[in-house]
Amino acid sequence: MTLESLATEAGLAYSYMGGIERGQKNPSLNVVEKIAKVLGSDPVTLLCRSPTSK
Question: What is the DSSP letter of 42?
């Protein structure tokens, strides 16, 4: 899935999604829920940091 299609399906602006991806924007919980729904994921999963490799 492209960032553009994710943004479209979630009802968000492509530039806003790009800002989230780059860490320049902080999404609200409502936005996290929209993104998670499109991805078929749990919102909590999107909020958790992935483990760092050693």
Answer: -
- Map out the domains of the chain with their CATH numbers: 3-47 (1.10.260.40)
pLDDT digits (tens, 9 = 90+) for 8-45: 999 999 999 999 999 999 999 999 999 999 999 999 99
Give the whole-angstrom CA distance, residue 32 versus residue 34. 5
8 Å CB contact between 26 and 32: no
Question: Mind giving me the DSSP string for 39-52?
Answer: HT--HHHHHSPPPP
Residue 21 buriedness (CB in 10 A; 0-12 / 13-18 / 19+): exposed
